[in-house]
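Worked problem 6 (solution included).
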Amino acid sequence: LEELGYPNLNVEMWYGFFAPKSTPPAVVARLNTELRAILAERDVNAAFDKVGLDVAASSQDELQALMRRDYPRWGEIIKRNGISAE
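Solution. The predicted structure is:
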């Protein structure tokens, strides 16, 4: 993007795992523990690295904070540019 004239543009991408709101906290904690272990595996990291992605695990609270930060930003971009799902 810098080569296209946007040196300060941040389009940080992320992926998250979600469960229904009614999922018991103990199950959410267990899923988080297991996902962290999987993401820490050398082969998994190598596969992500091969396609240019950095692995970063977070807690449920950290993911919620990230979503609260990004939702207004991307919502404004979508509205301003008239973007819609196809």
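Discussion: The CA atoms of residues 24 and 30 lie 10 Å apart.
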